[in-house]
Amino acid sequence: MGKAIRNPRPDAGGTGAGGPGAPGDTAVRPRPAPDRDSAYWWEAVRDRRFLVQYCADCRSPRFPPREVCAVCLSLEWHWHQGTGTGTVDGWTVTRRTFHPAFPAPYTVLRVALDDAPALYCWGGLAGADPADLRRGLPVEAEFTELPPENGRPPGEDGPDVVVDWRPLG
Amino acid sequence: MAGTGLSGAASLAGVGRTPFSRDSGASTTALACRAVLAALDDAGLGVGDVDGIATHRVGDSSPPWVVGPALGIDDPAWHLDQFGGGGVSHAVVGQAAMAVAAGVAEVVVCYRAVNARSEFRMGGKGRAPAGAFDLQYQAPYGLLAPVQHYAVPARAHMDAYGTAPEHFGAIAVRQRANAAANPRALKRDPFTLDDYLASPWISEPFRLLDCCLETDGACALVVTSAERARDLRRPPVDIAAAAWAGGHSTYSPPAPGGLGDDLTTSSAARLAPRLYAMAGLGPTDVDTAELYDCFTWTVVVQLEDYGFCAKGEGGPFAASEAMDIGGALPVNTHGGFLSEGYVHGINHVVEAVDQLRGDAGPRQVEGAEVALSTGQPGYVLAGTSALLLTAGR
Ligand SMILES: [Zn+2]
After folding, report:
1. Rounded CA gap, B94 and B88, in Å?
2. Which residues from chain B sit within 8 angstroms of residue A11, using beta carbons?
3. Helix pair B165-179, B296-305: axis angle to 10 deg
4. Are B285 and B327 a contacting pair, CB within 8 Å?
5. Do A70 and B200 lie within an 8 Å CB cutoff?
6. Could you tell me which of B146, B221, B207, B79 has the C-alpha nearest to residue B381?
7. What is the pLDDT, as a whole number, of residue A150?
8. Where are the domains of chain B?
9. Separation of alpha carbons B77 and B103, rounded Å
10. Is A82 inside any structural domain?
């Protein structure tokens, strides 16, 4: 059975481009597809925790999760609570609908995490006008619950919580 | 220096192409065969001479083990079926040159065949390239199509250096003007900067006219030894250098301290010194450059990273007259992927061969002796590749 699209929180302002994915279509928003390295990270996101992996030997942080440390090649690691904050590194405001679950316009950011240099996380823009974006703008993680699919239990079709980013201040 | 053994060892002896269209009505196998036969004919060779066959693809096209037997080539001494997009488009030719230089093969045909408009459109509904593991961190937010992935570094470049929409527009306008002199080009009607600025947004900062053309078509190249190329039908074009770089992607995180830290510098910055050193040439020696233009901005970043201007100055430089045919550095003389068509990289190499042979007609760069032709500069699927080609003597 079909279900209404939940608008994936389009930005303030702007108009939808119409076309495929305009209101009337139904579509399931793609779920994250965890692999064997990232499954625990996505589980933590479901618990509203933003984790960063740290090498147990050289203490280098890494994101996204990997089995091996790229600095010292250690296979031992720990999870730590991350700051959940960062700064805007790049972004795009998509104004044509590519997938019916994502009606245009909407904004996706690449965020440089505050935890350490050279760690990047992606996510949608929350609660702000993309016209105000600039590189270096401070943002914080916001956990967004995706609507259930097809009446199946939450989480059955993959992680149902994702990370968006809200400008601070 | 490592790698100099490749310089000048192999040559491009023939080029072939199908017409470019929005609907070929043919399979990618058929397109590949047509392009390969045309390239062999151009070289004055036949399928019986071929002992190597190579392509790259992303699950969208006919592989060497189909195309080879379809032409009666059932036991090539060397073959390559490389996964990848435009980043490896020039790598395939470079690897063929290595196979020839190593004596593993003598005559290699490289091809790329796509029905990228009528069958396998990029950025279609949720179509993600297989093997891009870290898309799990992007697809859930609607970052799905190549245009979006390139838009992010382009926006960062604008923010960092003041690169402006008018710079992108100047590139699009010039390449369309170049295409007007190219009978193969899919789009030949000139437009103005105002037309560009009025074209609809796709994913900011890119408008429709910043984007390459989804194209059906194929091109092929014959790679053989420099020595044998001199005995064939057409003037040889020598592979003065081939180079590769990797480790920089907008799909996946950078290595610690890696180039991917900075979105505004592409992997071409790592590749370019190797490429020039192998050839014993520098940016000022380049007479014409075919720079990978899946989107306008990739021209800007490559002008910087291949050493034609300083970092941050690519926008104003791209908008200057230097890049016109007749200027100091004519770029994308055939109209590029924006206006000729997008055969996933290889049609840049074919244009470079046309220019170095003096075959480019009304768009000919006078006295062109050295051409740079580049692959996707290392965003998205990591890795880039490029060729420096010289007119054979
Ligand atoms: Zn370590």
Report:
1. 9
2. none
3. 100
4. no
5. no
6. B146
7. 63
8. 10-121+212-391
9. 10
10. yes
- Compute the distance between CA of residue B280 and CA of residue A102 in angstroms, rounded to an integer: 50
Partner residue facing A102 (CB), from B142, B250, B263: B142
Contact across the interface for A64 and B137, Cβ inside 8 Å: yes
pLDDT confidence bin for B126, thresholds 50/70/90: very low
> Which of B126, B151, B204 faces A30 most closely, judged by CB atoms?
B126
Nearest to B133 among A20, A35, A106 (CB): A35
A19, part of any domain: no
CB atoms A96 and B203 under 8 Å: yes
Residue B306 annotated to the active site = no
- Within a domain: A51: yes
Among B111, B161, B292, B379, the active-site one is B292
Neighbours of B141 (CB within 10 A): 27
- Minimal Cα distance from A96: which residue of B? B202
Which residues span the domain enclosing A90?
Answer: 39-167
Closest CA to B16 of B364, B386, B354, B363: B354
Instruction: Please write the tens of the pLDDT for every residue from B281-333.
Output: 999 999 999 999 999 999 999 999 999 999 999 999 999 999 999 999 999 99
Sign of CA dihedral B289, B294, B300, B304: negative
> What is the value of pTM for the model shown?
0.91
List the beta bridge partners of residue B57. Answer: B83
CA-based nearest distance A102→chain B, Å: 6
CATH of range B10-121+212-391; options 3.40.50.300, 3.40.50.800, 3.40.50.410, 3.40.47.10: 3.40.47.10
Peptide bond into A105 cis (omega under 30): yes
Tell me the chain A residues in contact with residue B135 when contact means C-beta distances shorter than 8 Å.
33
What would you report as the CA-atom Rg of chain A, rounded to the nearest whole angstrom?
A: 17
